[in-house]
Specification:
phosphoprotein, nicotinate phosphoribosyltransferase, about 500 residues, binds adenosine-5'-triphosphate, binds nicotinic acid, binds 1-O-pyrophosphono-5-O-phosphono-alpha-D-ribofuranose, TIM Barrel, alpha/beta
Length: about 500
């Protein structure tokens, strides 16, 4: 048996404990529905970019317990019934999955995945799904913020050395590419996903030669058509740039172009302006300026406002570690139980009203104004509801219900697509290029006030009347029965 890329044991112990208890109880095959969503937007951004689905699909397709996994669980000596382990030997994912495609712009509270299937299976996968989607969505969103302020500049993901281990580096590079980066320095990500790989050279290259000029000449002779020289090893303006220009002119004599120089320390605005002037005065107008050094969207925006002459940005640590918000806080909540031949909505109450879950199996629609082509709101409905596009639609804020707006002349685009049906994949995986362009076309659906990186407007995500009523009725019936039990 082929070993799954991600082990079935990549889960929290309590999932396996619940699987066992359900199995003992005879309830492990009962059909349930769960929603996966997040409660608030990362980085103060106005939207998130969904990523992680490909990893989820591969995981669910390969999911099984190997003999080693079973031996490990048995070795815990918890006295579990041996027949449970026999059942695990034939364990497969048999559920239905609906998800938004990767690259889609998504908002808090809306289900980005809905799973339906035997409770035992849906419990097991919770942890891994949150793990994949939380991280990749964060990185894609951070990348989109950086892309938003860099226009057509070249963006290179440089974070592998600072990432939280291998998977984060590789899947993070992919997420950054979905969010709008052009390339990664990670060769494995290039091989695995076909992401363009780019890079320059390190300070050690320069240090390894008797002089900086020797180092630059040797590098240029190895890569005459793609030489980018790192100019800050000793002194950017007095040594690095003059040497790079000398080598650039030597390349020019051979009919070649010095592709670029890289600045990696000091005042990047000042140094890039000086570098541009020196390069231009030497006639090296086509030589691009690359910058790196602890960059993020804020630094880059500042550098741009100072008139920095930077064409290409290498961004590492702050992107790949989601430095300013290291967790998305996605959640996975049970929303319905199949009982007596029908789906019964269920919810979880919290003392924090915004954490009360919305019951039932749901669809998510993006309401697009046909006149402007822009998104007006997202509407969450019950799966059995139909939206009548020929009639005006009244939308209201689910918490501040007095906030209402009427939309006419719209189309309602369903966001969730069928991914698995009874454990079989029914979704054709798009190529990474298709995912990236899907993300770009998603951006064009939104007004700039939702896309700006500082204090964006809150995009409306509303509940249908039917769903809102179901939630209120269920809340009331739960409170009524608690009161009855307590005799109050
Ligand atoms: N003109 C500028 N305006 C705002 N921030 C800048 C400007 N120039 C550089 N920065 C940023 O300031 C920080 C400088 O960090 P730091 O002082 O640690 O680096 P350094 O001393 O220049 O280089 P090294 O990496 O060698 O330590 C980096 O995040 C860099 O991107
Ligand atoms: O700054 P980041 O956004 O993380 O980008 C990656 C950094 O990695 C390299 O630094 P290196 O490992 O040589 O260390 P340094 O910090 O001393 O430059 C490179 O020169 C960048 O500065
Ligand atoms: O290619 C580069 O310049 C590079 C790659 C990774 C990290 N820092 C720089």
């Amino acid at each position: 048996m082929k070993k799954p890329t991600v082990s079935a044991l990549h889960t929290d112990k309590y999932q396996i404990t619940m699987m066992y208890a359900h199995w003992k109880n005879g309830s492990h095959l009962k059909r349930r529905a769960f929603d996966l969503y997040f409660r608030s937007l990362p980085f103060g951004n106005g939207y998130a970019v969904f990523a992680g689905l490909e990893r989820v699909i591969r995981y669910l397709e390969e999911l099984r317990f190997t003999e080693e996994d079973i031996a490990y669980l048995q070795s815990l000596g918890e006295g579990l019934d041996p027949a449970f382990f026999d059942m695990l030997r034939s364990f497969r994912f048999n559920g239905d999955v609906y998800a938004v495609p990767e690259g889609t712009i998504v908002f808090p509270e809306e289900p980005i995945l809905r799973l339906e299937g035997p409770i035992m299976e849906l419990q097991l996968v919770e942890t891994a799904l949150l793990n994949f989607i939380g991280y990749q969505t964060l990185i894609a969103t951070k990348a989109a913020r950086i892309r938003h302020i860099t226009g057509k500049d070249v963006l290179m993901e440089f974070g592998t050395r600072r990432a939280q281990e291998v998977d984060a580096a590789v899947w993070g590079a992919r997420a950054a590419y979905i969010g709008g980066f052009d390339a990664t320095s990670n060769t494995l990500a290039g091989q695995q996903f076909g992401i363009p790989i780019l890079g320059t050279h390190a300070h050690s290259w320069v240090q390894d030669f008797p002089s900086e000029l020797d180092a630059f000449r040797a590098y240029a002779s190895a890569f005459p058509n793609q030489t980018v020289l790192l100019v800050d090893t000793y002194d950017t303006l007095r040594s690095g740039l003059p040497h790079a220009i000398k080598v650039g002119l030597e390349l020019k004599k051979q009919g070649k172009t010095l592709a670029g120089i890289r600045l990696d320390s000091g005042d990047l605005a000042y140094l890039s302006k000086r570098a541009r002037k020196m390069l231009d005065e030497a006639g090296l107008t086509e030589t691009r300026i690359v910058a790196s050094n602890d960059l993020d969207e804020t630094t880059i925006l500042n550098l741009k406002s100072q008139g920095a002459k930077i064409d290409s940005w290498g961004v590492g640590t702050k992107l790949i570690t989601a430095f300013d918000q290291p967790a998305l806080g996605a959640v996975y909540k049970m929303v319905a139980r199949w009982e007596n031949g029908h789906w019964e909505p269920t919810l979880k109450i919290s003392s924090n009203p915004s954490k009360v879950t919305t019951p039932g199996r749901k669809s998510v629609y993006r309401i697009i104004d046909l006149k402007t082509g822009k998104a007006s709101a997202d509407l969450i409905t019950s799966v059995d509801e139909k939206i009548d596009e020929s009639k005006p639609l009244t939308l209201f804020h689910p918490q501040h219900t007095f906030r209402r707006k009427k939309v006419k002349n719209f189309t309602a685009v369903s966001l969730l697509r069928p991914i698995f049906s009874a454990g079989k994949r029914v979704y054709e995986l798009p190529s990474l290029t298709e995912i990236r362009s899907h993300h770009q076309s998603q951006l064009s659906l939104f007004w700039e006030e939702y896309l700006r990186i500082l204090n964006p407007e809150e995009y409306p995500v509303d509940l249908s009347d039917q769903l809102w009523d179901t939630k209120q009725k269920l809340l009331k019936s739960i409170y009524d029965s608690i009161r009855q039990e307590n005799g109050s």
